[in-house]
What does this fold into?
Amino acid sequence: MASCAAPTAPRIEHHSGDGSVLGSGCSRPRLSWTVPRAETGWVQTGYEVEVTRAGVSEQFHVAGDQQVLVPWPAEPLSSREVTSVRVRVAHEQQWSPWSPPRTVEAGLLQTADWSAHFISPLGLGADLMPAPVLSTNFTVLGHVAQARLYASAHGIYVATLNGRRISDNVLAPGWTSYEHRLRYHTYDVTDLIVEGDNQLGFLLGNGWYRGRLGYMNDRALYGDRLALLAQLEVTSTEGTVHTLASDGSWTARESEIVADDLYDGQRSDLRRAVAGYPLPTGAVEVRDDVDLSTLTAADLPPIRPLQSLPAQQVWTIARHGGQATIVDFGQNGVGWVRLRVRGLAAGTEIVIRHAEVLEDGQLATLPLRSAQATDSWILAGAEEVVLEPSLTFHGFRYAEISGVSDLRPEDVELVVVGTDLERTGWFSSSHELLDRLHENVVWSTRGNFVDIPTDCPQRDERLGWTGDLQIFGPTATFLFDTAAFLGNWLTDLAAEQLPDGSVPHVVPDVNRNELAFTPAAAWGDAATIVPWTLYQRTGDAGVLERQLPSMRAWVDKIADLAGPDRLWSGGFQYGDWLDPTAPPEEADKAVSDPDVIATAHLARSAQLLAQAAAVLGRDDEADKYAALAQEVRTAFAAAYVSPVGRVHSDAQAVYALAIAWDLLPTPAQRRLAGQRLADLVRTNDFRIGTGFVGTPLVCDALAATGHVDVAHRLLLQTQCPSWLYPVTMGATTIWERWDSLRPDGSVNPGGMTSFNHYALGAVADWLHRSVAGLASAEPGYRRITIAPSPPAALTHAAARHLTPYGEASVAWERAEGQFTLSVLVPVGTQAEVHLPGTEQVLTVGHGEHRWSVADPGASRSGVRDWSKATVRDLLDDEQVWTQLATAAVQAGIVPDVGAAAAKLLKYLDTSATRVGFAFVPDDRFPGAAAIRAAAYRLLSC
Ligand code: BGC
It folds into this structure.
């Protein structure tokens, strides 16, 4: 009988890691585990969960092979209850050792558990006034066995006990749709409490609640008063519980922070923190008007400092008649500057400005729009002090610091801040630029996953744009454990959806107007696509269960808008937002018809809703929406697809959608559409022609119709616009626009020019699934598809992912005509392996596997008989084509290589030997002789 190693400590709902879970909001948390090693042939046939509460253990035996998100087997947890859980697994009669235990402690699950009241400062802490501190003193007699602090706020808070920060969480309680859900955190403060006198204090900042929010220059969107909710529960060694709750006895005072805002930065006058400074003080008001029923436990990782980046280069520039220091951290990141200064007199002012790029040697602040992104300090004296804000964050690579001369690089660092998500996905290859592109995607995820998924982290926006995340979801779920993070955001999305199903363009919604809810394809479709992506990648059907009403409401809404002809047309649309042809100020002026995009999304959303209903066993609903999806596909084809597979508006994005989402009725139309897409890419000189909507799909669509080599050329293009162009320009994050920095080094003048916007980085998902070849074939990677399609220009590539079942990996390399594939398949899964260049498909179980086959790329080389080739083949031969196109430019026929490719769209089927005629049909025209000679030389014709 096969045996296995002990399973890992159970994952409790979506809490990763193996530490205790504190303050769980779930009374019946589901459990998951992985089995790190097992002998060949081992399969789980049963498991046993042991739940220990109050010293009593109960064991629950369950038959079957489930190991991901299995139901909580015991009585539900009550508020504050602590249980310890461990698991063991069996193959037939043979049991594994027990896993290590994991402790889960419930939070405050009922509103009635709160004895605390929200309190607001009186007479101070008003909007645009210094940040207030609310505090209380208390005395502890006897020994403390345990102390828990439950806290939330209107605004953001920094909590201290006896002057020490109670945790490294920052910007708590984070940002949710505050009207519907306000998060509280649970902290273990046992070690901070002392016997005798204690002081608990909360610095309150404006944050998302009362600070500036959105690009309409709004502020105080949720209310104009900061407020705190805190409940400290101290258990003595004798077991008595003393509760200290925020109430009317607390006091308020101003702090040294005289202004704070997420967009504009933080200003501190440290002289106000010196003992004896007459800070205004006041009482607090109990806010019984605040509804506690919206409180929800923080079941996702907190925002915290994740790492710090040292200064790479420091230099001085002239500024405002004086001098300032520019610090380059070498990486565009999100967080703040930590600066150590010494020897500067009281009253000295230090100002730190932030920017993502430099232009003409100065910070380029235009892309920040109205965000001031400036932190400043007035010092209190000459002793050494570390300056670091706590009520703001910025997106920047460069800081300009004034007020400190002779700044030493070791005194300054970039503190990277974000939601502490576990990294779960990696990619590497032999292609340096591609690896940097991937690294840039990782940085843009980190920088924009700050409690909610945002569009950008630097300008006066930083909003949860639904379209951006919908597009990027598959990439994000591979790179990081986003199950809880995105699940939380989807709960907000559903909470904010209008009763008629309309989805706001940003979640949480800040625009609060009619336009913000006008159904927009690809943006509103986040309601259906994101839950489905999460389910595919995590195996969590619970997310479908939770989101189903939201998914249904959205589909009903857009089906209704489409009407009986099943075509969703007219009205407001973002379309293929920011395609490369869109002028700087008209991001929606794409070449793709927005109506085509809208109807494609209706078909997709109806289809996904049908599939979700089927997963949940709602067969009638599944049938209803599958039929709707079919009707929409039929209408789409009738209106937009010609018999020969031309899709209306004839742009890269519409073909990408039609192919990737199965909108083409016949195999012939699909084949011809694929060919047309490939031709559009070729004659665009293998440069990208898509915006937000088409970008994640275009490589898949090419590969699925037999044009993977064209997809590889598109992927590896370095000219603008392309994925690698920004990398050649020194990008360290993904840019919002294909040309946020233009080839001449100038910043794109469009009012929307971020250098940290993940949407166009959605291609990373294709790197994982196709270039490396690691994809989920069944929800949660229960079955894995391993199907690398090795680009000719790469000698190796690899991807690794921590699936819900454990680590899966693929690595391939080519050497001396051999292609070697090494894979790791986690226990509990099976992989279907497609060996490139062969028809072979193998199914393998867990463990390490390795194959070697003849390198499919090796046969591609060799001198071609151009008399049998077409102009299309010529474009496909990168070397020969580049030389010929260069000759066309030199002969003055076209201004650049891109224009040379564009000129050939109508001649792709022409014999390659006639390419000179395709360029210049008449011998008498200028350049004719030169291009004919070049063709003769290159093609021997
Ligand atoms: C955001 C985008 C977003 C778009 C839609 C922009 O301002 O930065 O990423 O999707 O607006 O209008």
